[in-house]
């Protein structure tokens, strides 16, 4: 049987690697797209035409936006009785909210899931504590 800490660890890792990292990589990919899809053209053109210093500053800010978004989503789940996230193992259903002190804090703190598990977050993009 998976422990509560293992469940939260796996969820946090998935959140970082499957939600946060792909979003950050998407913004970075816009910079190098040679022939973007038509729907990407305005965004890619904007990113590609930024001066290097402006682009680097933007890329320090984007992770904060992404973490705030994930934190707000988890906060919505925490404060709602109609939404929940469950871990299912066999016939055992575990509500992540019940085994975590605060899901939104798990993602957004200085030593939280994103800082711990992201594979693309650079040191200069590290997020100061949001809470």
Short account of what is shown:
This protein is mainly alpha-helical and 131 residues long. It is built from six helices and two strands; from the N terminus they run αααββααα.
Explain what you see.
Helix 1 packs across helix 2 and helix 1 runs antiparallel to helix 3. The protein has 131 residues and is mainly alpha-helical. It contains six helices and two strands; from the N terminus they run H-H-H-E-E-H-H-H. A two-stranded antiparallel sheet has the order 1-2. It is 60% helix and 6% strand. The model has no long low-confidence stretch (mean pLDDT 86). The chain has one domain.
Low-confidence stretches: none
Span between termini: 32 Å
Tell me the series of helices and strands, N- to C-terminal.
Answer: HHHEEHHH
Calculate the mean pLDDT score and round it.
Answer: 86
Question: Order of strands in the sheet with the most strands?
Answer: 1-2
**Number of structural domains:** 1
Number of strands: 2
Q: What overall form do the CA principal axes indicate?
A: elongated
From the alpha carbons, calculate the radius of gyration and give it in angstroms.
Answer: 17 Å
Secondary structural class: mainly alpha
Strand content: 5-15%
Largest sheet: 2 strands, antiparallel
Total DSSP helices? 6
What share of residues is helical?
A: 55-70%
């Amino acid at each position: 049987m998976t422990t509560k800490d293992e469940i939260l660890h796996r969820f946090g890792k998935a959140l970082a690697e499957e939600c946060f990292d792909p979003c950050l990589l998407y913004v970075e990919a816009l910079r190098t797209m040679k022939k973007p899809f038509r729907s990407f053209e305005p965004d890619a053109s904007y990113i590609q035409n930024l001066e290097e210093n402006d682009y680097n500053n933007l890329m320090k800010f984007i992770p904060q936006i992404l973490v705030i978004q994930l934190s707000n989503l988890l906060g919505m789940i925490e404060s709602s009785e109609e939404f929940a996230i469950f871990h299912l193992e066999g016939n055992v259903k575990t509500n992540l909210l019940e085994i975590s002190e605060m899901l939104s804090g798990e993602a957004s703190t200085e030593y939280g899931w994103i800082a711990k598990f992201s594979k693309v977050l650079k040191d200069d993009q590290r997020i100061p504590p949001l809470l």
